[in-house]
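F.,

This is the one I mentioned.
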């Protein structure tokens, strides 16, 4: 049970399910009204000026919708998204390889950005600030730096630990938005939406029961929905003297 309620733990099966469940546009994203209002203004202004969106930092506990929002930002900006994970980028060269394939208007999503090694992070500074990539070339013992221009792009960073972000990195984000826990009503809306996506009928009492137990976290709500709907599909209710019990294959 504790695993079901742990929004940090997520396996590849669940990841796949989550991808199919993700809202694609801001108007399908439930709750976080202040954040959506801000993002609408920023996105609208950037599109109107034919510019890229400012670099955006999304922070808050796991399972609240940071990755989902990164994809939505890419959709709303009509850009392609490149996804990388902080801990998987070990050397400056790894990041340089990704940056050099970016195209104008792309969204570079770095998940768990607080876990980028410091030397990699330093490569990001120039890339974020003036869209240049500084490459050190070491030939015959002579090291020199060349600056390679990058196309304009938007970095979207996500972190569960805003306090672990260094201040130079934090300062380079024009937009920083906190994602908060959801109210029970909002979680109920998310469960109803999930049921619709899966084409499953669900009683309002069941929606409320899930909403009350989800700790304000969509990932947990969707997990409880999946677990309970699987249970009701496969298990039979058997009545006995003391009430009923479930027989599951
Ligand atoms: N505001 C929301 N509206 C609808 N579904 C959401 C919302 N936020 C999160 N979800 C769902 O919850 C799941 C987990 O969200 P995710 O973006 O992976 O969280 P995080 O990246 O913050 O850990 C996804 O499957 C997504 O569909
Ligand atoms: Mg995520």
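My design for it:
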């Amino acid at each position: 049970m504790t695993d079901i309620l742990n929004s940090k733990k997520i396996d590849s099966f669940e990841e796949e399910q989550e991808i199919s469940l993700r809202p694609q546009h801001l108007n399908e994203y439930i709750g976080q009204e202040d954040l959506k209002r801000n993002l609408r203004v920023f996105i609208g202004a950037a599109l109107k000026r034919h510019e890229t969106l400012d670099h955006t930092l999304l922070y808050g506990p796991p399972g609240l919708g940071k990755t989902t929002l990164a994809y939505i930002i890419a959709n709303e900006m009509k850009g392609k998204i490149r996804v990388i994970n902080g801990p998987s980028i070990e050397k400056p060269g790894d990041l340089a390889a990704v940056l050099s394939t970016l195209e104008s208007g792309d969204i570079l999503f770095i998940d768990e950005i607080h876990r980028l090694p410091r030397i990699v992070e330093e490569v990001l500074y120039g890339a974020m600030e003036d869209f240049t990539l500084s490459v050190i070339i070491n030939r015959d013992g002579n090291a020199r730096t060349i600056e390679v221009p990058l196309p304009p792009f938007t970095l979207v960073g996500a972190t569960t630990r805003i306090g672990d972000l260094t201040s130079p990195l934090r300062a380079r984000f024009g937009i920083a938005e906190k994602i908060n826990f959801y109210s029970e009503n909002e979680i109920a809306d998310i469960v109803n939406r999930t049921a619709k996506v899966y084409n499953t009928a669900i009683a309002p009492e069941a929606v409320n029961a899930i909403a009350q137990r989800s700790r304000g976290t969509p990932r947990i709500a969707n997990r409880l929905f999946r677990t309970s709907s699987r249970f009701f599909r496969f298990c039979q209710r058997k009545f006995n003297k003391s009430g009923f019990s479930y027989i599951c294959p």
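The beta strands are 56-59, 81-85, 107-111, 132-139, 142-149, 154-159, 175-178, 236-240, 243-247.

Talk soon.
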